[in-house]
Amino acid sequence: MSDESPWLVVGLGNPGREYAGNRHNVGFMVADLLASRIGTKLGRAKRAQAEAGEGRLVGVGQHSGGPKLVLVKPLTFMNLSGAPVVSLAQFFKVPVAHVIAVHDELDVPFGQVRAKSGGGEGGHNGLRSMSKSLASKDYARVRFGVGRPPGRQDPADYVLSDFSSAERKELDFLVDRAADVVEAIVLEGVEWAQNKYHGS
């Protein structure tokens, strides 16, 4: 695998205005922020049911020539996310090791963002679809903590509801942090990102 290979950063979510503020859509929020950071706009992809945009990630002290990022927001619903991901990975010749999924995570408390390489899907339908389509689980994940639902609320209903007013006060900061974690994985690797961001 060449280190010159582009990176495919997949923000997971559901299309449509009614889902925009849902916990399940933090992947879309992070993808949008990364697009603004690298100076691209996400538009309809010709080769997949997705919005996509390309740009270069410029590290500290660099002015140009950083790694190429392809940002993707699948426009299928969450449980069908894998098809557009694999189409774009094949078109841009992205190896599985250069795929990063950004997603909501019930098993991480709200306020925490975690980097991970490979592993299971934890019941997340978007990850399950990606793993099946890519025929591999060996991609990186940026796990945006949403915590467990209160009381007896069904987890499926919980992730399809909007962040609380208290959570929304921190949301911009946490989306920013998740974007930082994506950049750290691309520039320095998952382990480096874990060491930098897991302690805080």
Describe this structure in words.
Helices cover about 35% and strands about 20% of the residues. It is built from six helices and seven strands; from the N terminus they run E-H-E-E-E-H-E-E-H-E-H-H-H. Helix 2 (about 80-90) packs across helix 3 (about 125-135) and helix 5 (about 165-190) crosses helix 6 (about 190-195). The N and C termini lie far apart (about 35 Å). About 40% of the residues are buried. The mean pLDDT is about 95. Monomer. GO terms for molecular function: peptidyl-tRNA hydrolase activity; tRNA binding.
List the helices and strands and how they pair.
Layout: E1 7-11, H1 26-37, E2 43-44, E3 50-56, E4 68-74, H2 82-91, E5 99-105, E6 113-117, H3 125-134, E7 140-145, H4 155-159, H5 165-188, H6 190-197
Parallel strand pairs: 1-4, 1-5, 5-7
Antiparallel strand pairs: 2-3, 3-4, 6-7
